[in-house]
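Checklist before submission:
- one chain only
- standard amino acids only
- sequence pasted in full

Submission:
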Amino acid sequence: MRIIIIMGDLWTLKVNQVAVVSGFSTSMTEAFQGRLSALGFRSGQKVFCLGETPFGGPRIFQIGDSVFSLARDLARGIAVETLEMQS
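Returned file contents:
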């Protein structure tokens, strides 16, 4: 069995999936990067997808003890890494 690291963005997480924040998209403004960092979305932090709303609406994420609802455009700007086990 081996472990594979999959890189993606926060929007690709499925409900109940955990990932680690690895950075921000280069297209995201520094203002947004700073605000998200202040909220806890920093490299190395675990983030958990709690749920999603219908019709492509915001998804709910937990980072630390805080819960946030993020729209698709913003969540796509947050790079994450997930682990997958393959046999």
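Reviewer check: The chain has a mean pLDDT of 92.
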